[in-house]
Amino acid sequence: MKLKKVTAMAMTAVLALGMLAGCGKGDSKDTAKSDAGSKDTKQEAEGDVTTITYWGWDTNWYEPMFEKFMEENPDIKIEATNVAYSDYFTKIQQAIASGSELPTMVQQSCTLIANYKELGVFEDLTSDPYNVDPDIFFDFIKDRAMTEDGQLIGIEQSVSPSAIAYKRDLAKEYFGTDDPEELAALFQSTDDYITKGKEVNEKSGGDAYLFHSSGAVAEWLYFADSTELQTGDTVNFTEKMTPVMDTLVKMRDNKVVDTFENGTPQANATYADDNHLFYPCPNWAISYYIKANDADGEGNWGLMMPATGGYSCGGCSVGITNTSTDAEKEAAWRFMKWAFLEQGGVDTAKESTDYYVPTKEFYEDPSYASGADPFFGGQDVGGFLYGEIAQSIVIPTPSIYDQTVIDIRDLLANAVMSDSDLDTQALIDKGLEECANRITDSDIKVK
To answer: Best exposed site among 88, 216, 286, 433 by fewest CB in 10 Å?
Structure first.
């Protein structure tokens, strides 16, 4: 295990202001919840009941899922401890370093998945008794939790296909149409967003913006770019980040993007206003941002293909620790098989949390993900996201520096709006300085 390298990365993870949206869009309360109390140890099987443990931050997912599973499987008890996303990876590392017990099941964020692979504490789900065939999952995501030697350390909770959401009334006002295909035809390049976004701001007398937040745009552009962050011993920061920063600078200078900080209450309030048109939109943002913040907006939203093509934003996998007892592993696998591979768990996730599993066979039934969404003017949002979008996504190879660079990306996205004198090169230079401070492995080159 490369614990020294991973430990350095944990310090970066702790600096994150909050979780990446979609790596669990739920509550991230700092207080521990559940029967486990303050203990982080797994309990031995008691009588006919096997007790397993879980650490996670996404209460919106695990609370209804565990409740339903235990109702149907009274011989298994799942004790969940809520851990804030910003503390999670460090807590896992501390448990390993101190020799204290790990939970039976671990929630693995997508931006740290490469770091989890290096810990060496997870069961290989392709081996006995699990025998998971990764080919049953969507192609774009089936390898994300797989190590270089072919071990699958986790199964994705959900897939996160992403597009651009828009307000239909404002689209008609400024572009003459609210049809998603016609709008996509108008926005075929990032330059089109800049040209038409400038027109929106001018027509509105400076009141309206195409996008509400530079952070949201940066997140979209970054995840839509298939450039590998790391090749060998080199972190390709400049190559990865230059197109993102260049577009943000142009958007800032042409009044295409407003100054709200992504994810804040002030930014969330814009979903219900008349001054912001487009929102980069992972599937989970529909419920947790759009519908939650625009309660009166039913029928006024649409979803369109971005000029960059569909992309994946967010996601987490769940793994089983190899330090667990055989009874605990068996119980954990029963839950995971139910949650991701069996109809009962798959339906529970859909109905309770609006999560859609990565297992392809369930999409063979059109009623699983497809259907008219009244909130989106009757558009078949599910068919679009899990059909057209999900089938075309390409995800770069994960790097142990993913979260580090994402944190720096967010800093730069805020800086570009707070200092109008910063151009693309100045932002890249600023980012490289941050990389030098945070990526301290002498074997790694950052360029």
So the answer is: 433
Three-class DSSP category at 51: strand
Instruction: Tell me the C-alpha distance between 85 and 26, whole Å.
Output: 10
Same domain, 78 and 225: no
Q: What tokens were used for 190? A: 């990032």
Phi, psi dihedral angles at 262 (to 5 degrees): -55, 135
CATH of the domain at 337: 3.40.190.10
| Domain annotation covers residue 12 | no
Q: Which residues of 142-154 are buried (b: 16+ CB within 10 A; e: fewer)?
A: bebbbbeeebbbb
Helices (H) and strands (E) in the chain, counts: 18, 13
Q: How confident is the model at residue 238 (pLDDT cuts 50, 70, 90)?
A: very high
Phi-psi region of 311 (alpha: psi -120 to 50; beta: other; left: phi over 0): beta
Domain identity same for 289 and 238 = yes
CA torsion angle 215 302 166 198 (round to 10):
130
Nearest to 297 by CA among 165, 388, 157, 174: 165
Domain match, 155 and 274 both: no
Do 138 and 240 lie in one domain? The reply is no
The answer to whether residues 332 and 320 touch, using CB atoms and an 8 Å cutoff, is yes
Reduced to 3 states (helix: H, G, I; strand: E, B; else coil), residue 315 is: coil
Residues 258 and 114 in one domain: no
332: tokens are 């954990």
Q: Report yes or no: 17 and 413 within 8 Å, Cβ to Cβ.
A: no
Report pLDDT digits (tens) over 387-402. Answer: 999 988 999 999 999 9
- pLDDT of 55 above 90: yes
What's the confidence (pLDDT) of residue 47? 62
* Mean confidence (pLDDT) of the chain: 90
SS3 32: coil
Give me the DSSP letters along 290-306. Answer: IIHH-TT-TT-EEEE--
